[in-house]
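job 3f2a | input accepted
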Amino acid sequence: MVISVAHDFVCPWCWVGLSQVKKLQAEFPVTFEWKGYELYPDELEFPRPGGPKDTDPNRPETPSRMDLAYAAEDMDPPTAKRPWPLRTHNAHEAVEFAKSLGLADQLVERLYRAYWINGMDINSIGGIRLLATGLVPDLDQMVKAIEERRFADQIIGFDEPAYQSGVYNVPTFFIGGDRLAEQPIRVLRRAIESELGRSGKA
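job 3f2a | predicted structure (202 res):
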């Protein structure tokens, strides 16, 4: 059973999604296929930073949806200062190259950790080359593929192209005929159990 995951490296929900994928891989006989979706492709302007919110100083703080997502996964929010805004096309090109070698999972995890834990620019050619060292055998060929945008047709950008493909949020997990976006792991787990049960592989 192959589960496609629409994702982008700079999305905090996808950082949570990486943790979910690793747990689900350990629990079920399933394979995950990482599908690159660019939140900020070249033709899309970066969002403008919002101003400070007016809050009542007497009002106690409440957790955000992101806070609750981290809590549900028993994760601490990352504290590294990360480059922002950041485009990610090169990183997705590198993953597509790694797919041809059966190394996508490993490179995806290295890229996520480099960005969220170490605050690294994961879209620079030098950064990608460093992260792929010891994993991808021919780094020069990988860099050539990135520079040629060899896999551009496999990478989908927001907004309209993503919406046309059925993806409105990342991560979106395609399990059976369902699209599960920004869901807690218990929802993903139940969906996988149901799908495996239907196929007789549970």
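job 3f2a | The chain has one domain: 2-199.
job 3f2a | closed
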